[in-house]
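Service request form, structural biology core

Requester: graduate student, group of Dr. S.
Request type: structure prediction, single chain
Budget code: on file
Notes: please return the result as structure tokens.

Sequence provided:
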Amino acid sequence: MFVHYAQLGLLSLRRNPLLTALMIMSIAFGVAASMVTYAVFRAVSGDPIPQKSAHLFAPQVDNWGPQYNRKGEPASAMTYTDAMALMHAHKAKRQTVLFQVLMSVMPTQGSGLPFKSAGYATYGDFFSMFDVPFQYGQGWNAQDDDNRAAVAVISRDLNQKLFGGANSVGREIELEEQTYRIVGVTEHWDPKPRFFDMFNGNAYTDASEVYIPFTHAIDLKMDTGGNNSCSGVGNRGVGWDGWIRGECVWISPWVELDSKADADEYLQFLHAYAQEQQRAGRFSWAPNVRLRDVNAWLEFQHAVPPESRLSLTVALGFFVICLVNTIGLLLAKFMRRAPEIGIRRALGASRADIYRQFLAEAGMVGLAGGVLGLFLTGLGMAGAGMVFEPQIARLAHLDMSLVALTLLVAIGATVLAAFYPTWRAAQVQPAWQLKSN
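Core staff response, request fulfilled:
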């Protein structure tokens, strides 16, 4: 019977092509606007590392005091002094600190020109903590950190540029006129948002291409390629030593903890460390520390751009307006067929039969609107850069899950919108229609 009702729906839609086209276009534009903004919102609000997000934490220690911090919150990064204190304490299962580096890469072919690559100076635990996948080799070990070794991990894209995609483990690469031995080549890895480096505003930038040991970068007195915030506590200080021993923050710390008990214990450690700094005279305020997991950290950092939320709200409002228009069009269409309904009821059709027939017809409208909406969604994806920042707009993709969701929303919303017109149509009294016709 469903096939029969669908055939009746198609015949009914053909009787008034203009009205049918208006309904289909109304659904298509509404669902397309919603799906484009939803795709962007989904891309920027998803969990970037769902398998471990509850076990990775960003510690914070307030080294500026209430006079300079923002709404009582510690800075989003740490000083070299505090970062090294956390690393030397070894209170976490795994731990790392990192800062951004921007390095000049010398091509392996002598005729090529140097080019810049962005990456990070970090510790070897970085790769196991964040589940970085490898194409060749692996990350360096703790001994390399301790020995301040000149080793490097490069990305698959950089490996393709330099070595044509071949296994380059054991070969050398020249970065900033320093020679490094390659120990690993990562697969394409670019979590969005880049939760571990929100301080530098790199949430949606291109994937990093090179990683070197933090200890080696400090040995070379390498400057940060990212942000350096001194707030109101003073300038960078005099020279390199003045900078890293000062109160400017530029290093992002992360720790991996297995349980809530471990997290509570680590938070107590941070509190005790801040108390120690207070007793030493460095801090003149009460300990102010935080420990946030990945999702709490992203919320604190406002990782979801406000324009994506606003656009999604506006698009959903537009979709509701389209559905209201569709309700009016369906009501007009169904009530025109009151004589037909009266005759069907007189011949024995029940109200349930009327419901099934008209809802099937609405489903056909929704399906057609969904198909057209898919085409418009594809166009919307191409033009999303006109509304959102390009680095955010390019994250939205029309994948199979979004295709299925678009069709489901279009059909489901149209069928829901058809309930009131169908209810009105099912209330038609056969006797009145037979008498008047």
